[in-house]
Design a protein that fits this description.
The protein has helices spanning about 1-10, 15-25, 35-50, 60-65, 65-75, 85-100, 125-130, 170-185, 205-215, 260-265, 270-275, 290-300, 335-340, 370-375, 380-395, and strands at about 110-115, 135-145, 190-195, 200, 220, 255, 305-310, 310-315, 345, 355, 365. The protein starts with a helix and ends in a 7-residue tail after the last helix. The chain has 15 helices and 11 strands. It has a domain at about 85-310: Alpha-Beta Complex (Spore Coat Polysaccharide Biosynthesis Protein SpsA, Chain A). The strands form 4 sheets. Strands 2-1-3-6 form a 4-stranded mixed β-sheet, with helices on both faces. It is α/β, with parallel strands linked by helices and about 400 residues long. It is about 40% helix and about 10% strand. It binds 2-acetamido-2-deoxy-beta-D-glucopyranose (3 copies). One 2-acetamido-2-deoxy-beta-D-glucopyranose (NAG) binds near residues 216, 304 and 305.
Amino acid sequence: MKLSKAWRLGPLGMKEMQHMLPQHRHRGQLKKPTWIIVLVSMVCMFLAVAYIYPPQTSSACFIFSASGCQTISSWLPPSVRELSDDEIASRVVISNILNTPPMESKNPKIAFMFLTVGSLPFEKLWDKFFQGHEGRFSVYIHASRKKPVHSSSYFVNREIRSGKVEWGTVSMVEAEKRLLANALKDPDNQHFVLLSDSCVPLRDFDYVYNYLMYTNISFIDSFSDPGPHGSGRYSDHMLPEVEKKYFRKGAQWFTMKRQHALVVMADSLYYSKFRDYCKPGMDGRNCYADEHYLPTFFHMHDPNGIANWSVTHVDWSERKWHPKSYEKKDISEQLLKNITSIMESVHVTSEEKVCTIDIICYLFMWFRQLPVVKLIAFGAEEYIWGRFELIVKKKGKGEKDTM
Ligand SMILES: *[C@@H]1O[C@H](CO)[C@@H](O)[C@H](O)[C@H]1NC(C)=O
Ligand SMILES: *[C@@H]1O[C@H](CO)[C@@H](O)[C@H](O)[C@H]1NC(C)=O
Ligand SMILES: *[C@@H]1O[C@H](CO)[C@@H](O)[C@H](O)[C@H]1NC(C)=O
């Protein structure tokens, strides 16, 4: 009885027992203090042995009751659980890819991967962005519904075979993986950028190229959100491979280095957990694989290899369930100035600070899809490009840059 209590309380239980025992003495049940000392030291020894040789099998948990076992696992090293064959295989492949130095390329390129419905509304803007940098980038387009009509030669014949994409379902992640697989075919592609059709660049090509190429991390958004739209979406069906404490959230617009793209291709075990158990209506809740799979996967396997924020700005400042949508009156020089000069980012739900390393946070900006037509109509494209050239010119005049 006392033993199992000590087990449940862990090392802290010792203090409680020391408080309990003198009371017994006052009641006169145990008169001899030596008896108490013997008992206490036996318990101590038992706990010490149990700490050094933790129970390896589930039968040990059974003896000390299920709740006792949970407490033990929370203060013991995490390796107590025996890994399955699939997990051992998966982990060894992941760690080998991560520990193998990246393939050297004489002509390193950045792969710009566009996840679109059909045509790209900002194609002309991207055309200006790419001009003069031929050979240092490649373009891939996954158009899920309509065949795009192109206005820029950089986009012609760059569509990959696509599949249907349904909002909120794993088909979004499938499309991301399809883009990565196609972009990986070119060994010169060293960094991979996922963008939507409503993304615009906020910096010039050289700036973006240097920013991404000379950092050895991936910009993957990953944070803990204890609320119903974060951990509340977790399902126990993901056990034992994905524990709730590892469950993370993040915007889907990533950039990743080649090693990380390969790791994503190599994974089927963790992916299958999200495909099967993180979907709308799962256990009466809505879980969206595109917001949780990569943030959780990289948090588990390479937490220091990711920045924990995305370089694509999405405005959540209104704290609604969808990001802010911009209107004509919102697109001002001040807004763009603000976004391009942000040097610290805080995840709204977790208060976790990221991007605090004296570097600008955002290279791209995401507009909510609906108003894009409106933006085009009033010439936002020209406006943003104008602002853009202003930044470039200022930089040329010797404005100090943080890169
Ligand atoms: C990235 O580079 C820095 C400095 O060269 C190094 O300290 C760090 O360990 C590297 N990180 C990874 C994930 O390779
Ligand atoms: C990202 O977050 C994880 C876990 O919170 C942390 O261990 C890691 O150091 C962070 N990455 C960077 C680059 O700070
Ligand atoms: C720009 O940032 C300043 C300071 O944070 C803020 O007061 C202002 O409202 C912002 N302007 C726009 C247009 O976002």
